[in-house]
């Protein structure tokens, strides 16, 4: 169990992860070392960390190359955090650091960890990891399906038939994955309960509810402004002096935002409170895209409150809430 950061003086270690190597830097000792990104290299890294009092490892999300490192260290009881590379890059610029090498990157990541104290990774259960892998694969197949449908319009003859056969295979495989995902989620009691809660409003189906559970575990644990900013549906100011710029959403979790967008498109058609809110925004002169994003934020706020209070969708409460932007 990870100890509170308020009572622990951590030895911060930054690790720059690549496909071939792990470059590490320890702030306490100011030492740099390199290990291969292999099982043997991870053993060497663990040996270095074992000599430090309360090691805390920070690495960037590196397209999956960091996964083995994170699982190995977290399983061994080491505090490990995965951070957005963009945040580290901005941090380096703020420090005036322009040079870029793997050891320098590792040092910057370590400084970032010490200053920002990012949250430690909490490992998912085996069932959750399996569901996440299946959901990720499903998204890949959906993207392939969309691409094949676009290609089909431009083809004739045998090539079109070949693409149509592939489209049929993709559709069948997606249906099989949906059944497998739902079966795993149903046999996970906590997931089954929370999934049922999330599916109580019209517009949220099995795929969206599972995706929210997987990619937004903070749901129900943050306030409405924090959860909106985390997903990337909160408008940010662009003001300076007398200038008042337009508000724009920025950043956030693209995967969650895509799921929320799909759910919102259905909700503004079939969910009475959100449909009324959407029409109200249009009547006030809001552009379609702005109105949809506002409905996404409203839906997310409601889902966050539902999970927090463990209460299902209440159309009357949402209607009252929708009277204010």
UniProtKB/TrEMBL annotation:
This is Insertion element IS116 uncharacterized 44.8 kDa protein. One of its GO terms (molecular function) is transposase activity. One of its GO terms (biological process) is DNA transposition. Signal peptide: none annotated. Pfam families: DEDD_Tnp_IS110 (PF01548), Transposase_20 (PF02371). It comes from Halomicronema hongdechloris C2206. It comes from the Bacteria. Residues 13-154 form the Transposase IS110-like N-terminal domain. The keyword Coiled coil applies. Keywords: Coiled coil. The keyword Cytoplasm does not apply. The lineage of its organism: Bacteria, Bacillati, Cyanobacteriota, Cyanophyceae, Nodosilineales.
């Amino acid at each position: 169990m990870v100890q509170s950061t308020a009572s622990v003086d951590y030895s911060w270690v930054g690790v720059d992860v690549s496909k071939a190597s792990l470059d590490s830097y320890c702030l306490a000792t100011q030492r740099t070392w390199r290990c291969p990104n292999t099982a043997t290299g991870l053993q060497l890294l663990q040996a270095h960390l074992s000599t430090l009092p309360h090691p805390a490892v920070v690495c960037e999300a590196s397209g999956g190359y960091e996964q083995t490192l994170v699982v190995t260290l977290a399983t061994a009881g080491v505090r490990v955090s995965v951070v957005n590379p963009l945040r580290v890059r901005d941090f380096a610029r703020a420090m005036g650091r322009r040079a870029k090498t793997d050891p320098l990157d590792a040092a910057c990541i370590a400084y970032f960890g010490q200053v920002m104290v990012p949250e430690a990774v909490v490992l998912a259960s085996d069932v959750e990891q399996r569901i996440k892998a299946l959901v990720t694969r499903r998204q890949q197949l959906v993207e392939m399906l969309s691409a094949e449908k676009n290609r089909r319009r431009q083809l004739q003859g045998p090539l079109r038939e070949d693409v149509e056969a592939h489209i049929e295979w993709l559709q069948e495989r997606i249906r099989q994955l949906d059944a497998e995902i739902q079966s795993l989620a149903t046999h996970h009691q906590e997931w089954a309960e929370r999934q049922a809660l999330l599916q109580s409003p019209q517009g949220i189906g099995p795929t969206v509810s599972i995706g929210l559970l997987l990619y937004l575990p903070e749901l129900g644990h943050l306030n409405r402004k924090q959860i909106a900013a985390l997903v990337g549906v909160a408008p940010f100011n662009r003001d300076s002096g007398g200038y008042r710029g337009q508000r724009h959403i920025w950043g956030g979790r693209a995967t969650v935002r895509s799921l929320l967008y799909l759910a919102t498109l259905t909700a503004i058609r079939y969910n009475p409170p959100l449909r009324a809110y959407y029409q109200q925004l249009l009547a006030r002169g809001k552009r379609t895209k702005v109105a949809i994003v506002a409905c996404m934020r409203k839906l997310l706020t409601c889902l966050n409150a539902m999970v927090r209070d463990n209460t299902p969708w209440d159309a009357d409460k949402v209607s009252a809430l929708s009277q204010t932007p």
